[in-house]
Amino acid sequence: MTSYLLRGVSLLGATPRDLVIADGRISDKPDAEEIIDADGLVALPGLVDLHTHLREPGREDAETVETGSRSAALGGYTAVFAMANTSPVADTAGVVEQVWRLGREAGLVDVQPIGAVTVGLAGKQLAELGAMATSAANVRIFSDDGHCVADPRLMRRALEYVKAFDGIIAQHAEEPRLTEGAQMHEGEVSTRLGLTGWPAVAEEAIIARDVLLAEHVGSRLHVCHVSTAGSVEVLRQAKARGVRVTAEVTPHHLLLTDELAASYDPVYKVNPPLRTASDVEALRAALVEGVIDIVATDHAPHAVEDKECEWAYARPGMVGLETALPVVLSVLGEQWDLIAERMSRTPARIAGLTGHGTGLAVGDPANLTLVDPSARRVVDPAELASRSRNTPYAGTTLPGRIVATFLRGEPTVLDGKAVK
Ligand SMILES: NC(=O)N[C@@H](CC(=O)O)C(=O)O
């Protein structure tokens, strides 16, 4: 295993120093075989994404575990959690083990499968949560993401079930009866465009119900892709009462607004939909404050035919792994410790993922990423490693370039390029 000396690297913005990586760990050895000139580069603990769609098995034309892993490594990630809405659905030990094994074979990031809460994501009957938990994939997070676990009794049962092993139910909060036929955020813009709206209350009502259920059961709830100011208030109150709830926000909900739907370009169609400028402001403040715990990408690759069509027929979702850190940098500025907290340490802690999200101290596994904060990049969809091209940032200039990523001391990205 090659050892590396990162010359003049800044740990989270601190005074530059040399950092040695040897035998897969941060080392106190004085030198190494390879020297990387890290002048001007900032080291962050490898990013951890609790919400990624890798599409394999079933839609390998949109993404595979390998292409998604490469996309993640290029984005500075060392671990991603793969959502269960594949085909077949990841609702059995067999499917989660398959995804886990494919991740190991790709070897670019740690791929941790998320199991479905209900059989086939159909919301009728609990999936084999225990079998997935005791499988080789060691599943601890369960989600029907893409669908809401709308039935309150089923949600209660799921929360009760995972309590035994301190598991988490990650909810896609969307009351389906309030979003039938919805195409975009319900508000002034949807009225002007004549598109059916997805009201904020459809998210807020489910979060309010679920924090009460989680409180009643004493279980852990995680709220996926929080998108409204009202949801932030529900979460704030629940956390103040001590409910065991955590929440994520996506980079796109921190930056983009529903005004973009006026272009009728389906690249801006996403679930939950882009909201208003005041929602964006509330989400940013909640992320800084910690009412929203983490940033998660909701990387949702789609094949061209599913995206480049009429708005109403387009699938919702945006790719996000390769632009997440630049978007967050543009929103938060160079608050490195906060970025490490929201994109690495806290997601690792929520998931109980050891070896990731560390302090980069001597002895820690060398899972880290090097960023050049002074670089600017114009996003070119053709350059993405993801198999899909549905980025809302095409042509946008974003700050920060991910120069290198190390997974347990092995580079997965060097000079901004994937190593394999
Ligand atoms: N977030 C999205 O817009 N899309 C997700 C699933 C979903 O939440 O609809 C996808 O799997 O494509």
Automatic annotation (TrEMBL):
<feature type="binding site">
    <location>
        <position position="271"/>
    </location>
    <ligand>
        <name>substrate</name>
    </ligand>
</feature>
<feature type="binding site">
    <location>
        <begin position="316"/>
        <end position="317"/>
    </location>
    <ligand>
        <name>substrate</name>
    </ligand>
</feature>
<comment type="similarity">
    <text>Belongs to the metallo-dependent hydrolases superfamily. DHOase family. Class I DHOase subfamily.</text>
</comment>
<dbReference type="InterPro" id="IPR004722">
    <property type="entry name" value="DHOase"/>
</dbReference>
<feature type="binding site">
    <location>
        <position position="53"/>
    </location>
    <ligand>
        <name>Zn(2+) 1</name>
    </ligand>
</feature>
<dbReference type="InterPro" id="IPR002195">
    <property type="entry name" value="Dihydroorotase_CS"/>
</dbReference>
<feature type="binding site">
    <location>
        <position position="145"/>
    </location>
    <ligand>
        <name>Zn(2+) 1</name>
    </ligand>
</feature>
<comment type="function">
    <text>Catalyzes the reversible cyclization of carbamoyl aspartate to dihydroorotate.</text>
</comment>
<feature type="binding site">
    <location>
        <position position="298"/>
    </location>
    <ligand>
        <name>Zn(2+) 1</name>
    </ligand>
</feature>
<dbReference type="InterPro" id="IPR032466">
    <property type="entry name" value="Metal_Hydrolase"/>
</dbReference>
<dbReference type="InterPro" id="IPR011059">
    <property type="entry name" value="Metal-dep_hydrolase_composite"/>
</dbReference>
<dbReference type="GO" id="GO:0004038">
    <property type="term" value="F:allantoinase activity"/>
</dbReference>
<protein>
    <recommendedName>
        <fullName>Dihydroorotase</fullName>
        <ecNumber>3.5.2.3</ecNumber>
    </recommendedName>
</protein>
<feature type="binding site">
    <location>
        <position position="225"/>
    </location>
    <ligand>
        <name>Zn(2+) 2</name>
    </ligand>
</feature>
<dbReference type="InterPro" id="IPR050138">
    <property type="entry name" value="DHOase/Allantoinase_Hydrolase"/>
</dbReference>
<dbReference type="GO" id="GO:0008270">
    <property type="term" value="F:zinc ion binding"/>
</dbReference>
<dbReference type="GO" id="GO:0006145">
    <property type="term" value="P:purine nucleobase catabolic process"/>
</dbReference>
<dbReference type="GO" id="GO:0005737">
    <property type="term" value="C:cytoplasm"/>
</dbReference>
<feature type="binding site">
    <location>
        <begin position="53"/>
        <end position="55"/>
    </location>
    <ligand>
        <name>substrate</name>
    </ligand>
</feature>
<dbReference type="Pfam" id="PF12890">
    <property type="entry name" value="DHOase"/>
</dbReference>
<dbReference type="GO" id="GO:0004151">
    <property type="term" value="F:dihydroorotase activity"/>
</dbReference>
<feature type="binding site">
    <location>
        <position position="302"/>
    </location>
    <ligand>
        <name>substrate</name>
    </ligand>
</feature>
<feature type="binding site">
    <location>
        <position position="145"/>
    </location>
    <ligand>
        <name>Zn(2+) 2</name>
    </ligand>
</feature>
<dbReference type="GO" id="GO:0044205">
    <property type="term" value="P:'de novo' UMP biosynthetic process"/>
</dbReference>
<feature type="active site">
    <location>
        <position position="298"/>
    </location>
</feature>
<feature type="domain" description="Dihydroorotase catalytic">
    <location>
        <begin position="42"/>
        <end position="229"/>
    </location>
</feature>
<keyword id="KW-0378">Hydrolase</keyword>
<feature type="binding site">
    <location>
        <position position="51"/>
    </location>
    <ligand>
        <name>Zn(2+) 1</name>
    </ligand>
</feature>
<comment type="pathway">
    <text>Pyrimidine metabolism; UMP biosynthesis via de novo pathway; (S)-dihydroorotate from bicarbonate: step 3/3.</text>
</comment>
<keyword id="KW-0479">Metal-binding</keyword>
<feature type="binding site">
    <location>
        <position position="85"/>
    </location>
    <ligand>
        <name>substrate</name>
    </ligand>
</feature>
<feature type="binding site">
    <location>
        <position position="172"/>
    </location>
    <ligand>
        <name>Zn(2+) 2</name>
    </ligand>
</feature>
<dbReference type="InterPro" id="IPR024403">
    <property type="entry name" value="DHOase_cat"/>
</dbReference>
<keyword id="KW-0862">Zinc</keyword>
<keyword id="KW-0665">Pyrimidine biosynthesis</keyword>
